[in-house]
DNA sequence: AATAATTCGGATAAAAATGTCTTTGGAGTG
DNA sequence: CACTCCAAAGACATTTTTATCCGAATTATT
């Protein structure tokens, strides 16, 4: 409804990494397993986040991915601008390329306030807060795998 | 950000049909031209809306598409449930299949109120109202085609 | 009856998103 | 140095979405 799978994986992974002790690289394989997500595909996404400076990656033994220093406060919006592209915030709900107060689609004036709510929510949530919420144990980062039924 | 192209085309087309005199079939070709959208693809979408009872279609000369009687009050939500599928309203922003008050993702309690706003907006807007808005001339249904520069 | 205009239905194609595999090279360990 | 564990990088495959094409059926007009 709002985000691509790629974005969902990226956000989940970043939150998970933020829950881990900082400075200790997290394995792509572990993240993928924890989130129940295809490992190779996730690796692609994480590599992309590295390129954009959100993560650091380390090769070799004891390698893995770390949140780059200072990036714990990264907002969801900042992440989504990377994964969904820079037009993420600009969309008209009917798909018009040019839809503004001056050139409005018939939904425009009803949609804009709702969109603002969405954007401000995404702006105010950051990885650190979300990670803390997960660490309380009250929230889930991924669906329970079928295996969890066996515990 | 929220809707697939298919949904956007469907909504635009339905609003356009609703602006036309009722009872007179509207040509797929005319709609496509007006909205600047691929005609063959649009035809598929309209056929699908016929199947689901939103439109009537007429073959042959003087054929075309009409809003079915009583369907002027159709809400955007009803349209989107057809074009996006019945899970449209159920989505968790992080993509969890099972995300409820009891099994919440870390965004859940912040996201739900915003989602409610989106859904109630989509529920309260209907084709007739949107068509009226377009008929005032204050709103656009499609981007201006390049050709419009020549007028 | 012939013709022209239109939707219908199926086949096909192109593009984008998602997912997989394989090779490479860096980094620690013995 | 040789070995092993790891991510990087890129090629490849699959699936979904978007788009095109064509023949057949239908209808009004001539």
Textual characterization of the structure:
The structure is a homodimer of 151-residue chains. A two-stranded antiparallel ribbon of chain A has the order 1-2. In chain A, 46% of the residues lie in helices and 5% in strands. Chain A is mainly alpha-helical and 151 residues long. Chain A has six helices and two strands. Chains A and B meet through helix 1, helix 5 and helix 6 of A and helix 1, helix 5 and helix 6 of B. Chain A binds a DNA duplex (30 and 30 nucleotides) through residues 4-6, 25, 27-29, 38-41, 43-44, 46-47, 50, 57-65.
Output the keywords.
46% helix, two-stranded antiparallel sheet, mainly alpha, DNA-binding, homodimer, elongated, 151 residues
Helix content of chain A: 40-55%
**Order of strands side by side in the largest beta sheet of chain A?**
1-2
Alpha plus pi helix count of chain A: 6
Query: Quaternary state, please?
Result: homodimer
Straight-line N-to-C gap of chain A: 33 Å
Give the topology string of chain A: H per helix, E per strand: HHHEEHHH
Instruction: Provide the gyration radius of chain A in Å.
Output: 18 Å
**Overall strand count of chain A:** 2
Beta-strand proportion of chain A = 5-15%
Question: Structural class of the helices, strands and pairings of chain A?
Answer: mainly alpha
Shape of chain A: elongated
User: Ranges of chain A with pLDDT <50 over ≥5 residues?
Assistant: none
Mean pLDDT of chain A: 93
**Major pleated sheet of chain A:** 2 strands, antiparallel
Largest interface: chains, residues each: A-B, 42 and 42 residues
């Amino acid at each position: 409804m709002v985000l691509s799978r790629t974005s969902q994986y990226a956000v989940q992974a970043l939150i998970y990494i933020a829950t881990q002790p900082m400075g200790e690289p997290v394995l792509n394989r572990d993240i993928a397993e924890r989130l129940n997500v295809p490992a190779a595909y996730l690796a692609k996404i994480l590599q992309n986040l590295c390129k954009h400076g959100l993560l650091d990656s380390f090769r070799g033994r004891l390698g893995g991915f770390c949140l780059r220093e200072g990036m714990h406060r990264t907002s969801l919006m900042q992440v989504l601008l990377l994964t969904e592209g820079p037009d993420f915030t600009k969309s008209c709900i009917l798909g018009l390329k040019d839809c503004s107060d001056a050139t409005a689609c018939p939904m425009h004036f009803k949609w804009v306030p709702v969109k603002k709510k969405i954007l401000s929510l995404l702006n105010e949530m950051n990885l650190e807060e979300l990670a803390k919420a997960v660490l309380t144990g009250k929230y889930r980062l991924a669906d329970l795998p079928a295996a969890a039924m066996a515990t």
